[in-house]
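Predict structure. Input: Para-aminobenzoate synthase component I, 385 residues.
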Amino acid sequence: MSILGFDPSAYWNTLRQFWREHTPPASPHCEHLPFSGGVIGLASYEAGLACEGLRSRHPLSTPPLTALACRDLFVIDRREQALWWVSPDGTPPPPLPETPLPSSTLPPLNWQADYDEQAWHHTIDKVRSYIQHGDIFQANITMRWHSSRPERLDLLSLYQRMRTRCPAPFGAWFHTANISLLSASVERFLSLSPDGTIETRPIKGTTGIDPDPTRNEALRSALAQDTKELAENLMITDLMRHDIGRVCALGSVTVPQLCAVERFEHVHHLVSSVQGILKNTLDGIDLLAATVPPGSVTGAPKHRALEIIDEVERSSRGAYCGTLFRLGWDGSLDSSVIIRSISATAHQLSLGAGGGITWPSDAQREYHETLLKAAPLLALTEPSS
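Output follows.
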């Protein structure tokens, strides 16, 4: 299912109808499996814009909403090296496909950035001017890199290399006729358990990793005390608290973790947690519609930040800064923020990186942080050192 157009109610109403039409009469439920069938989908950043009553000035690079119904599926636990076949209709499992060996060589990609350093500085200064005049407190400003897609590029081999070089808790390979997503996302967007418990884990605040333990601990400590990064995380945590509060039972929203330093493969981040209980008259689709695009990649106040982002950025975000989600037949939901990812159409590849801009932001520092985030993906087709 691929949905085009601007009407946000059409996205979510069609998704709900699609989910219900494909739900098996006796939905399989396996307590030990995180997912035993349902809908897996990609909601683009522009689908989130539409939910806020906004339309991008840029040509769309991605269908606003793409979804697949998964009734018969293999479920793999890589940590335990276990494999299950799930089929509500009792369909016997097909022969296991052979795992293709990744290509040892990949054609070079000619990545071109939306901004050079001078243009980036000008953009950050413009956003700071909006902050100075009271329009917003913060906006997440990003740049995209684009490359033509070589005819001999094997996307699965590229993803297999991404998994090796950029392991991530929300890595994903989502392949359809219209778009493919190769994701090394480190950020959960929303999770929803069958009993209605919601959690979102916004990430804001970044520093590098040093192989020397003493210097690395100094980096961690500096991040934990960085006034600008802490303020940035706090604003986005409050934004997500507001967003999920739209669909949560009164008084159920809490913040059990605020600005904790967590280590990932290439960087340290500040990570918070917001939890709540979904109103019993609503479902995971209502939760998505109330919260996209993710707060950590937008700004505060959200609506005005979205307007400014679209004004100053130079291309549509598409899949980048949208969400990849799985909606189980049992009503459970898990999803990631689409960052540290490459999206591919028939002729083009794109990736993005960025960061939150507040009044104390330094354009030079923000530029280098953006390059730090993008570097592992930009280097994927280069030989490993």
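Residues 185 and 254 are 25 Å apart (CA to CA).
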